[in-house]
Write a structure and sequence with these properties.
about 100 residues, mainly beta, 4-stranded antiparallel sheet
Length: about 100
């Protein structure tokens, strides 16, 4: 019996899903992997004077290593990671065996 594979990719701006999961049964198995990126900064630097101005930072770059406080601060603009727009890329791979005829 030959297994077939199907790959589904999804991109969303915000997602509260877990980073990965795997399901297996006797005739099929599937797994999903999510990659998270933080892109342009959306902090309004002129909010205190009633205006709107962003700094133009295009992508979050951590100022420190993972696990430190600086890992949540952007090296380019100095803002917290939460001010950067979140993009989640999810890839689902399903393998299945067609039923016997």
């Amino acid at each position: 019996m030959k297994k077939r594979q199907m790959v589904i990719k999804q991109r969303s701006r915000n997602s509260n899903t877990s980073s990965s999961w795997t399901t297996t049964s006797s005739s099929s198995s599937s797994s999903a992997i999510s990659n998270v990126r933080y892109v342009e900064c959306q902090k309004n630097h002129a909010a205190n004077i009633g205006g709107y101005a962003v700094d133009g930072c295009r992508e979050f770059m951590a100022a420190g290593v993972e696990g430190t406080v600086d890992a949540l601060r952007c090296a380019a603009c100095g803002c917290h990671r939460n001010f950067h727009r979140k993009e989640v890329d999810t890839e689902v791979v399903c393998e299945y065996s067609p039923p016997n005829a």
